[in-house]
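Exam revision sheet. Question 4 asks you to relate a sequence to its structure. Input first:
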Amino acid sequence: MVTGDNETVKVSENVESKSKYDFIEDLKQIWNIIISPNKTFAYIDENPTWWLPLTTLIVISIGYILITFPSIVIPEKINAIMSNPAIQNLSDAQKTKILTTSNILIRSIIGALISTPIYLLLKSAIFYFTIIVTGYEIKFRKMFSLTVWAGIITSLGIIVKTLLTLAKHSSDVYTSLVVFLPNLDKGSALFSFLNSFEIFTLWNLSLIGLGLGVITKLDKKKSTIIVFVLWLLWILINTFVLRRFSGGMAK
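Answer key, structure tokens:
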């Protein structure tokens, strides 16, 4: 009876320890996902947290907006808008509403707050249903946690972009394949396609693929291939189908 009671106490203590949120352990994963991702994958499998990496991504995104938009990005946007003949048909009040720096800044910040979690939820859902269809199991909470933790790499990319933007005093900065083709037309489909092969995006996807292998016990090579095939399909559709459709609508 004593042994049984002791085992019951141990089980209850383990359940209680797993149910408690450990901020310090969560904080460690920001570093682990970069230098030792397997530790984070194991952590996610046991503790599928998400609020800290999501908050980090949103805060860094807003930081980029606040640092670069007022003096660099917004003036570029205004110049681009003003070069559009359609803007001349608007009233002064409409132009002011569109071109005011504070309005652009507020819209951008609200966009970061709303679009970031929605994008991560949709991205997680696509990977989740694909894994389920292939015959493997994963809880959506774990899939979302993995996707959000991989977003730390996206945050790192935003920091690099912020520094490059400040150094160049231009938002025309890239960490993708287009750096090898500086004379490529930025409005072309080829530019859009090559710009998708961005170092932090590829790093992010690699982590999701490897993490899926750890959590679902699927072969890591297969899980990584699944992630990259889905991403490549989206890039092809976005570049050569949706782009043409939006272009046709604009005309």
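Marking note for examiners. The chain has one domain: 50-250.
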